[in-house]
Amino acid sequence: MVSPKNNRQRRLQIEDKLMTGLSEMLHSGIPFSDITVQQISERTAVPRSAFYVHFADKNELLTRIGFGALWHSVRTAEDQQHYPSGPDYLAAAMTAALQYIEPNRPIVRAVLDTSRYVPDVAEEFFRYQTTLQIKLAIRIRQQQQGGQALGGDANDMAFALAVFNTEMIRQYVSVQTSLSTVRWLELTSLVWRRVIYGVGSDPVTGV
């Protein structure tokens, strides 16, 4: 008899195989819309029937691998120990979040694209964006109470920054982008500093 532990290990191995296969296909330049479950099955040597034991469809598979990079920005917003609040620390926090997105551009691009028309992906994206807004609002409110941040509705500020951040990520992962990592960090940090703190250029970048 196969133990529950071995069953779980086997399940995780198959799921990892499928996630790796889809990731490799996206990195090779194949648009997500052109990828089929059959192609994923053939690439990974996982039978199509077995695929459906683990994932409802290719969209669920994409959601599993794609939101890891985006959710890291939420974890960064929560981590006040490693990423303190204040205009001088914004660039470091954004660099930390971006390091998970940069090597996964094709995957993040597929997530952002499909979130516009696939309900399940859109639902997960909404949960991610809403959670990010909540965490940002908490941070901004704390800084307002400490006299660091500008006054105003912290929820509105957090909403605007979360939406702006998503659009900047969309630009960054676009196949047509001319936006370098350095420029992305400069522009994003500039807007966040001005919205939250009302300050101008960064002492390091000069932007």
Briefly, what is this?
The protein is 70% helix and 0% strand. The protein has 207 residues and is mainly α. Helix 1 crosses helix 4 and helix 4 packs antiparallel against helix 5.
Could you describe the 3D structure shown?
The chain has 207 residues and is mainly α. Helix content is 70%, strand content 0%. It has 9 helices and no strands. It is elongated and about 60 Å long. It starts with a helix and ends in an 11-residue tail after the last helix. The C terminus is likely disordered.
What order do the helices and strands come in, and which of them pair?
Blueprint: H1 4-27, H2 37-44, H3 48-54, H4 58-78, H5 90-101, H6 105-114, H7 119-145, H8 154-173, H9 181-196
Helix pairs in contact: 1-2, 1-4, 4-5, 4-6, 4-7, 5-9, 7-8, 8-9
List keywords for this structure.
207 residues, 70% helix, disordered C terminus
Low-confidence stretches: 203-207
Listing every helix as H and every strand as E from the N terminus to the C terminus, the arrangement reads HHHHHHHHH
Number of strands: 0
Biggest sheet overview: none
What structural class is derived from the secondary structure elements? mainly alpha
| Bulk shape | elongated
What gyration radius follows from the Cα positions, in whole Å? 20 Å
Average residue-wise pLDDT = 90
Percentage of residues in strands = under 5%
The rounded distance between the terminal residues' Cα atoms is: 64 Å
| Helix count from the secondary structure assignment | 9
Helix content percent band: over 70%
